[in-house]
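Quick question, first post here. What does this chain look like in 3D?
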Amino acid sequence: MELCQWWRHIVVFLLHAWIPSCFAQTTPPVRLSPTPTPQTAEGPETLKFRLSGFPRKHNEGRIEVFYKGEWGTICDDDFSLANAHVLCRQLGFVSATGWTHSAKYGKGTGKIWLDNVQCSGSERSVSVCKSRGWGNSDCTHDEDAGVICKDERLPGYVDSNVIEVQVDENKVEEVRLRPVFTIATKRMPVTEGVVEVKNKDGWAQICDNGWTPKNSHVVCGMMGFPHEKKVNKNFYKLYSERQKNHFLVHSVACLGTEVHLAACPLEFNYDNATESCPGGMPAVVSCVPGPLYAQSTVMRKKLKMPSTIRLKGGAKYGEGRVEVLKGSEWGTICDDRWNLLSASVVCRELGFGSAKEALTGARMGQGLGPIHMNEVQCTGHERSLWNCRYKNITAEDCKHTEDASLRCNVPYMGFEKTVRLSGGRSQYEGRVEVRVGQRWGSVCSEGWTTKEAMVACRQLGLGFSMHAITETWYWDSSNVTEMVMSGVKCTGDEMSLSQCQHHRTVNCQKALARFSAGVICSETASDLVLNAPLVQQTTYIEDRPLHMLYCAAEEDCLSKSAAKANWPYGHRRLLRFSSQIHNIGRADFRPKAGRHSWVWHACHGHYHSMDIFTHYDLMSANGTKVAEGHKASFCLEDSDCDEGVSKRYECANFGEQGITVGCWDLYRHDIDCQWIDISDVKPGNYILQVVINPNYEVAESDFTNNAMKCNCKYDGHRIWVHNCHIGDAFSEEAEKKFEKYPGQLNNQIS
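> Answer (accepted):
Ran it through. Tokens below.
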């Protein structure tokens, strides 16, 4: 028995080691066969659970239950994260990170065993959760539920918790384009080549007899390209005649809407695979890259990005929360009925390939403003999301906790091969090293900021930058390389550090190893936004006596002319308003500085954890500051939170500072320094601007929504404020009208 158990361990280990990793030139979704997990007996019946569907990773999929000798699914009615926690534990994972509805991983077959499942999350088995009972359901397989489990096994799990991968010799998991032209093998991305699929014997070809543009469309989508184009087959025919081909597949019949070749009807060769393509040749595909990946400047200019749809909050290109422009205002999409077909339409419209994942439940953070679309239903053939069926919604239909997001297939560029981290304590941190010429070397940390660190983490595929490190002496320095790059200056949008500005020859004043640039990366980041309507509602003018402003003067909250005033007589004219700063990201906003360096402010009776957290400015229409910019330093805490979210941070008693996801920090209009000193401002039309985290001191998933602007009119006695909005909330045309605002002719705001 012990020998049998030992062999069982060996077989499982070999199977896991054998499963192929994704091919270096693509990032296709992986389609695994159903993965049963034997479980303990539940009364007289033995329950088994497995993850099925495609495309998916090993820790996610359609949840299926084996009951009374038959596999079946679970309906998504009343499904919750608590249900997913229970099911993931039964699958051998520690917990769930999410769940899916509307058959995201494809429709199952057979029974729908459970419906209206309601677990508390602590149950040992889904069988003891509330439900309608086994086999009692009013659902169709369009409503099959799926789970996303945390990729971490239960401690001490035994074989019964191992997902046993059943190897099917005719399964298509990986697909690649193999370039044939010499010049094409050196250029990234690979846009044309022989289509090859991987099976147990290695890479094999597909016979092109009956090959259609729809098949090419699916392959290009997997490779990260939006469209296919006609290919010149003459050269490839000559090439194939000189090669020994192995045809695994002799017939493919895609509809063109599939997100993976494995979803198309395929006919496999069972006999002599080298002689099974009579009169044909290996299938060849040529793809058209999107504007971000076009290989020539002319093509990049010709292929423009759409102006009515965008992705926000993602760490990488081709992922994020979906936002659409309706009228002149950007808004989100509700996740009801959100699926891979609709997500693929968005991905291709944006110049990427088909969708890898259609994400629900604000997985890429919550948006702001209106929710423009609900129950989007695309066929997969549409050129734009606006051509799909959808419903307009009311405020009762959806909330931003249901914002839809996605991940697209993007072309493989090989950028991660030209950067690495060294010396860190985990794969997410370390000194940044790059390929310059034929040698690896470190990067000078002079001018190294969050923007440069963001690019490095994106290039590494490690998400966002949590910290940009300029002194790396505390990391292992046993293998420190010499500096090979300096003067790095990024906008933050680049795909790799090599695309940023940098010195042609290394010029670093601090060339010691301890001053090498480093990063600490994170899969998630915070995202701060200001409540613009609240600013508009709470703005007013106060003439405050000087004898009440000593504390404010000490904190530099007044303009320079206040120093020449006849203290304590007279007053200062203050433009007051409330600031309510929300964290809508996926990680808490924490100050960069440690507690040891926080500054005690006796006037306010608390510590300030950031020197400059916001800029308050009053500007003329051409952008000239008319009131000296007040740079406010805050004590960061959770003033209040969304329903179901608990406060974590408070300033009192030297408490931890920060803003929790789903919470906000409120600085009321009636507290010290919550103003702009306009004592020296003349009557006129101005722009009120507030910028959060202006120096990018703390990493966020989106910096474009950190600024808020308002039009305002000041007549010397009163002020009128309107059109308050977040910097990226309007269309470009609407923003231009705002900036060219000629001023009000009267005090009536229409």
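The first strand starts at residue 35 and ends at 42.
The radius of gyration is 29 Å.
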